[in-house]
Design a protein that fits this description.
Layout lengths: L13 H26 L4 H19 L1 H4 L9 H24 L2 H8 L2 H13 L5 H18 L7 H24 L5 H20 L10 H27 L2 H7 L2 H14 L5 H25 L1
């Protein structure tokens, strides 16, 4: 799940936008699978530090020469840095959850965040939600409850980390809504990358006494950064070709990719009840996005 905001107007190529988002969420799901595999062998701070440093290098090489100071220029720097800290904590809790749980169920629990954002935005940002909107939000929450149900076979500690991840993601997206009024998309991406690189580099220092990753595993950690940066870039380009209301439902393909790749790589297939829960989350999210689209038109 990702929020990338751009001030560029869409230019009526909706199928291109949908295709780009489909590829972007595939990159994110591939990153989830890589993270789970790496956490079985290496400390999470080491993995995520390399991922953020790789993303920072990519921004420096490909974006800085064109953007220069616009890459980091902000109006509300304190809130921008706070947003970066919430995403860093989300990355940490995601790694801890993936270490203990299947990819599909972990990502599904994370997707409680859009519904929480909608609920909190009512008193915090003064947004309005229709009765139909509340119905689908409750449907999405119920889908998450089905996945987390007692006796479902998920590690309770892993579920706790996934819920903390959803809480961090909720704060992150609420801050994104506030900051989108004053900040550019590329500056927001740069600062979350910079904060993450510093945060995890510091956390990774004590792990330098541990065995260093093999060359293939180090390459996989770098690939995490490539997937993340490429995914954010594809989202930014997608918003130039299609409206947000059309792109939003495609986000939920992340759940499909995550469950499919988790099964192919680790043999983790959600049971029948969890599959129903995942389907409820996808249905609720897509319907909320379509309702938003219809209200605007």
């Amino acid at each position: 799940m990702v929020t990338v905001l751009t001030r560029t107007e869409p230019d009526a190529r909706p199928l291109v936008g949908v295709a780009l988002v489909t590829l972007a969420v595939l990159f994110f799901a591939l990153g989830d699978v890589l993270t789970k595999g790496l956490t079985a062998r290496y400390p999470i701070p080491m993995i995520v530090a390399v991922r953020y440093l790789a993303s920072l290098i990519l921004l420096a090489v490909f974006v800085w020469p064109r953007m220069r100071s616009r890459l980091w220029k902000t109006e509300r720097t304190g809130l921008v840095l706070l947003r970066g800290c919430t995403l860093a904590l989300a990355s940490l809790t995601m790694g801890l959850a993936l270490r203990l749980m299947p990819v599909g169920e972990t990502i599904a629990i994370m997707y409680v965040s859009p519904f929480a954002v909608m609920a909190i935005a009512v008193p915090l940002l003064g947004e309005k939600v229709t009765p139909v909107g509340w119905f689908f939000a409750i449907l999405g929450f119920c889908g998450v409850l089905l996945i987390m149900r007692p006796g479902g076979g998920l590690d309770p500690v892993g579920v706790l980390w996934a819920l903390l991840n959803a809480a961090c993601a909720t704060a992150y997206h609420l801050l994104t809504r506030v900051l989108s009024r004053t900040e550019t998309s590329i500056a927001l991406i740069f600062h979350v990358t910079l904060v993450g690189a510093i945060f995890f580099s510091v956390l990774a220092l004590p792990t330098l006494n541990d065995p260093l990753p093999s060359l293939p595993d180090f390459g996989a950690m770098v690939l995490l950064g490539v997937f993340a940066t490429s995914g954010h870039f594809l989202f930014a380009v997608a918003y130039r070709h299609a409206p947000a209301s059309l792109i939003a439902p495609v986000n939920y393909l992340h759940l499909v990719w995550a469950a499919l790749l988790g099964w192919l790589v680790f043999g983790d297939l959600p049971d029948g009840i969890s599959m129903i829960g995942i389907a409820m989350i996808i249905l609720a999210g897509v319907c909320l996005a379509l309702q938003s689209h219809l209200q605007r038109h």
